[in-house]
Amino acid sequence: MEIKAFAPAKINLTLHVTGRRTDGYHLLDSLVVFADLGDQLTFKPGPALSMDVRGEFADGVPADSRNLVWKAAEGVGWTGHIDLSKSLPHGAGIGGGSSDAAATLGALAGQGYDAPPDLPLSLGADVPVCQEGRAIRMQGIGDQLGAVNLPPLPALLVNPNVHVPTGAVFKALASRDNPRMPEHIPEFQNATDCALWLSDQRNDLEVPATGAAHKIEQVLDTLQTTNRALIARMSGSGSTCFALYPTMKDAHFAAYEIGAAYPDWWCRATQLN
């Protein structure tokens, strides 16, 4: 029987780096949401594990045991053929590979292939939060998750087709001991209220990522100057940036405006939840 799964883009509305453990893992405090766009996966049971990768961003994505999807399937003992359609840019700070792995674990759990408790986090720090697929406060090394109630957030995602190595961004951090978010995240009535609160928060990786890829600063400046933009910020370790808007109409108008000016940029209006 064919099984289908959807792997949404993960967006870090905030990303506070709050410390570093002796084993090298960074401690984070991040407000995470998910887009209504993402990758698609299809699973067909069979005697051996195999995989094809296709789609807009298939180039450079391994179709073997290096892929987190393969590792996830192998980790739960499932065999068969996996078809991964990549609509999300990879290495872009929106959790493409982690979301793909989380979707794999969810789809195969529905077929009786439950993951060992330590498997998700061993695949990557973002895999557990991607398993939630909804607004979450993520703390620690990605192992502490708490549900958050947020209103739907009209947004525009923009990636200038620049890859930023995560390791290099963390290495360039000026400080690894920064303040956390407030203990309590309030209830927001709408995107405008949420953006106002977010303006007092941070992505601590934005400065080092911009230093490694100057186009990120250009993207942020461009988003901020679009009509009715509420806030513009980088997601994750980059290079994807987002802006929030009062309505989806505003987000779509901004997508048209930026898409026309920068046709080589990946530019998608979406709703974040």
Helix-strand blueprint:
Layout: E1 3-12, E2 16-20, E3 26-45, E4 50-54, H1 68-76, E5 80-85, H2 96-109, H3 119-123, H4 127-132, E6 136-140, E7 144-147, E8 153-159, H5 166-171, H6 191-198, H7 206-212, H8 215-224, E9 231-234, E10 241-244, H9 248-261, E11 266-272
Parallel strand pairs: 4-5
Antiparallel strand pairs: 1-3, 2-3, 3-5, 3-6, 6-7, 8-10, 8-11, 9-10
Helix pairs in contact: 1-2
Task: Give structural notes.
The chain has two domains: 3-146, Ribosomal Protein S5, domain 2, CATH 3.30.230; 149-272, Alpha-Beta Plaits (2-Layer Sandwich). Helices cover 29% and strands 28% of the residues. The protein has helices at 68-76, 96-109, 119-123, 127-132, 166-171, 191-198, 206-212, 215-224, 248-261; strands at 3-12, 16-20, 26-45, 50-54, 80-85, 136-140, 144-147, 153-159, 231-234, 241-244, 266-272. Strand 4 (50-54), helix 1 (68-76) and strand 5 (80-85) form a beta-alpha-beta unit. Helix 1 (68-76) runs parallel beside helix 2 (96-109). The longest helix is centred in the middle third of the chain and has 14 residues, at 96-109. It is globular. The two termini are 31 Å apart.
Give a quick precis of the structure.
This protein is of the alpha+beta class and 273 residues long.
